[in-house]
Description:
- The chain is an all-alpha fold.
- It has twelve helices and no strands.
- It is globular and about 55 Å long.
- 51% of the residues are buried.
Amino acid sequence: MKSPAQSWILALRPKTMTAALVPVIVATALVKAHGLPVLWWISICAALSACFIQIGTNLVNDALDFHKGADTETRIGPQRVTQSGLLTSKQVMLGAALCFIAATALGVPLVLQGGWPIVAIGLVSIALAYGYTGGPYPLAYKGLGELFVILFFGLVAVAGTFYLHAGFVDLTCLIAGLQVGFLATVLIAINNMRDAPQDALVDKRTLAVRFGLNFARMEIAFFVIAPFLLGMFWYPKMFNALFLPFVSFPFARRVLVGVMQNEPSPLFNRFLAMAAGLQMVFGLGLALGLWFK
C-alpha cells in the first residue's frame, strides 16, 4: 500500500516533466544565441508555470480516463491513482485545479512583461489542458493529442518564452519549437500505441486506434527522426546546435527498435522512459549548442 505522498508523486507523473522543461531551456538558449540578455526570472516563471500545467493535465487525465472507462484493471501502462483507488477522483480533480491556479499565479509577472499575447497563450493553454481529456470535445479521444503536444509543448512554449525576452519571434523559434515538440509527441504516440487495444473498446479514437499499429510505428519513427533532420537548419552558423543533439541518438535508436519489433505490452513503459530521456538529452544538447554557438 502506498502512502499519500507516494500516491501523489505517482499521480504527478514526474517523467513527463521533460515535455514542460525542455522547451523553456531551449528557448532560453535561443535568446543567448541571438545575442540578447537572458532574464532568468522569466525562464524560471515560464518553466514552473509549464510544469504546473503539465501536472494539471496529468491529473485531469487520470481522473477522467477512469470515469470514461479507458483506465481499468486490465491496463498495461503505469499505475493510475484513480483507477487503483489510491486517490479519489475528487481529490485528483482538486489537485488539478490547484495546479492550474498556481500556473495562473506564476503567469501574472509574465503577462506584465509580455502583455495580451501572453494572456491569450495562458488562457488557451489551461483551457486545452483540461480539454485534452475533458469537456464536450476531448482532444485525446478525437485523435488530436499529437497536434496539441506539438503546438503547446513545442511551438507555443518555445516562441512564448523567446517572445517574453525579445519582444518578437522568428524562424529560429519555429525550428526549435518543432524539434522539441516532435520529441514530446513521441511520448504520447508510444502511450497511445501501447493502449490502443484498450482505447478501442471505449471509443478513444487516438491515431493509433484510427489507423492501426503500423501507422503508429511510422508516426513514432517520424517524430523521432525529424528533429535530427531539422537540425540541418542550424548549419553552418550554429554548428554546435546541429552536432550536440546527436549525443541523444542512442536513445533514439533504442526507442525505434523497441516499437518496431514489439507489440503493445508492458514493455512499452520502458520505451516511454527512453523517449523521455531522448527528449531531455536532445534538448540539453540543442540548448548547449545554441548557447555556445
